[in-house]
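The instructor's notes for this session suggest beginning with a concrete chain rather than abstract definitions. Hand out the sequence below and ask the class to guess, before any prediction is shown, which regions might be ordered.
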Amino acid sequence: MLRTILTVFGVAELLRPEVLIRAAERLALENPEECELRPWTVPVARVEGVAFLLLVRRRKGSYSTFKKFLGVVGLLSVLYPREYLGYATKLAYTDAANCQWRPWVYHATRLAGLFYVIVAVKELAKPSRAEIEEDSQPN
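After discussion, reveal the predicted structure:
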């Protein structure tokens, strides 16, 4: 299920990043009309979409690594949601100081981060391929 959701998100980010970004701005920002995207934000979003698709759809090992990486990102957003959003805002907007996030966005950032951490912990709890092979060997 997670793989499907990430695939859909990756395709949307690849094909129509402007639509995704504008929708998120209208939903999450108090003043979306006052926030100007950096010129490279949309192309970077496309690259992110390609990266999602490659990591999620390629092979099991890359997907497993991706889920662990999500856990690291998630931990940062759980522990430091304001700083996490502040850093992302500075990367994406020319006038980051003007962008005012709605109050619920900080809680949503923390919640999304918690979900990512749970995904990573579940992945880490899975036995490795070597452990599975070792367990299947006759004694």
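Then share the key points. The chain has a mean pLDDT of 90. Residues 2-136 form one domain.
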